[in-house]
Amino acid sequence: EPSERPTRTAVVVGDLFPLGLAMAANGFASPIRVLTPSEAGAALAALREYQETQPGGLLRGDARFKLHLLLPAFCRLVLHPVLVRAVCEALGTPDVLCWSSDLNVKEARSPTYASAHQDSTYANLLPTDAALTAWLALSDAPLEAG
């Protein structure tokens, strides 16, 4: 018979709970509004333009990685002051380094679902309490999208 796991109430980032507390309680912090609609739109437009340069207009393999080194719009994303401040606060450090940037494209109305997982398992981010991943949506994404 499976053992029951204790449940926790998620701590949501906001005025009452700073980001660092949400990270400590949940292992994640959400939602954090990083980009304005115009910033997200500009990054999405740059992504679509880049996508058209790829074979078949598809982002596959290495074409999905380290775009902050190729596209000025994605460099602006990883240097965005709201994102940098959130990462610094979550890690409790004044200095951070962007190790990589990866795309996980999920088109609108796609049936794919990204379940909860630990990125450190796949990316070998060690020590796990000194690294994190930040996920940014470039378009509206309903909660049901995962």
TrEMBL record:
<dbReference type="InterPro" id="IPR008775">
    <property type="entry name" value="Phytyl_CoA_dOase-like"/>
</dbReference>
<dbReference type="Pfam" id="PF05721">
    <property type="entry name" value="PhyH"/>
</dbReference>
<protein>
    <submittedName>
        <fullName>Uncharacterized protein</fullName>
    </submittedName>
</protein>
